[in-house]
Amino acid sequence: MARPTLASLATELGVSRQTISNALNAPDRVRPATLKRVLDAIEAAGYRPSAAARQLRTRRSMNLGMRLLPATDGINGSILDRFLHALTESAQAAGYRLTLFCADTDDDEVRQYEQLLHVAGLDGFVLTSSRRDDVRTRWLQEHGTPFAIFGRPWGELQRDGSARHPWVDIDGAAGTAEAVTHLVRQGHSRIGFLGWHDGGPVGDDRRAGWEHAMRASGLSEHISRLRISTPDTIAGGVSGGRKLIERDATAIVCASDSLAIGALESLRELRPRLFLPGQPAGPGLRAAVVGFDDTPVAAALGLSSVAQPVEDAARHIVRLLTYELAGYPAAGTMPDESLLLTPHVVERVPLPLAPPA
Questions:
Q1: CA-closest candidate to residue 310, choices 130, 170, 174
Q2: Domains of the chain
């Protein structure tokens, strides 16, 4: 059986080829009854429009670019892995492909933008890890290139409070605040925070959520004493956890799962009895650690952690970009250009370890 074409479908249905094209690319221009008849016929025939022809017609490559960040410790990097998978899946469903590239610095990333736009004709870019005074967003705006960013435009809001560009982010402050509330419900009052050095605005946001929840819970006297910064590694979590335990913290909220794994190890090392049945830290109280990112390692260790809805973030970024690239009037309902998603605490009980002999 010959493969159906736009011309053969038009002849079969008694409509023009333009009507078939409009049904696929601008359905608002086709009467509802005709649109249904055309789409039903397209599905029944298994017709697939030519990507090359569509690119010539729209002058778009149907391709989006994203910088692939280097792997860190193999723990926190799983968040971007999930984001990338959901982004690729959503882009593919929308008829787009994703081009990944590497860059050592933000300036290198900008140079890659210029090359990819010139050589590969990419339609737009997905950015991650936003920062204050971002050279990447500034360059893309100056060159009129569509983009959306996974991260807030820190310090780049307009006077009316709106963003200068589309973005999606996770409310880290809400996540650490929920972690504090969760621990207070368990009976804890000496709740420490373990953040990372050079955490940037993301780290500041997570620390701010802990501070706000501590004040709201009437625990503000502990804020200055139970706040530690350390490198974002398991070793950093161990050393930071030890310092907080020495300051009598019975629970620790961490800015990442790497830090939480180290903090958990320090608690087991210095206070192993707190993890043994029947020997709590106080009446009904057991030492606790809450991480951030809900990585597979945290789940395997039975570590409570703040889960980020990164798949929702990826899907919304694709909606933002495809809406702009399709042309605002013909693209349907405009998605929110600024979206802050709320994470939630996944509660687990770490496996008890026997104290050292």
A1: 170
A2: 6-49 (1.10.260.40), 63-171+310-342 (3.40.50.2300), 172-308 (3.40.50.2300)
| 112 vs 102: CA distance, rounded Å | 8
Q: What is the side-by-side strand order in the sheet with 304-307? A: 227-230, 191-196, 251-254, 288-292, 304-307, 344-346
Integer Rg of the chain from CA: 26
Burial of 116 (0-12, 13-18, 19+ CB in 10 A): middle
Give strand pairing partners of 278. none
Per the CB < 8 A criterion, the answer to whether 261 and 297 are in contact is yes
- Secondary structure (3-state) at 7: helix
Cα separation, 311 vs 86, in Å, equals 5
Per residue in 58-105, pLDDT (tens digit) is: 456 889 999 998 766 667 778 888 999 999 999 998 889 999 999 999
Q: Alpha-carbon torsion 320, 323, 328, 333, what sign?
A: negative
Phi, psi of 224 (to 5 degrees): -70, -30
Long-range contacts formed by 320-326: CB under 8 A, 24+ apart = 320/148, 320/166, 320/168, 321/64, 321/96, 321/123, 321/124, 321/126, 321/146, 321/147, 321/148, 321/166, 322/94, 322/96, 324/124, 324/146, 324/166, 325/60, 325/123, 325/124, 325/146
Indicate the pLDDT class of residue 28, thresholds 50, 70 and 90.
low
| pTM of the model as a whole | 0.77
Task: Give 267-309 as a 3 state SS string.
Answer: HHHHCHHHHCCCCCCECCECCEEEEECCCHHHHHHCCEEEECC
Per-residue pLDDT tens for 175-214? 999 999 999 998 899 999 999 987 688 999 999 999 999 9
**Nearest to residue 139, comparing CAs of 109, 169, 105?**
109
Residue 142: count of CB within 10 angstroms of its CB: 8
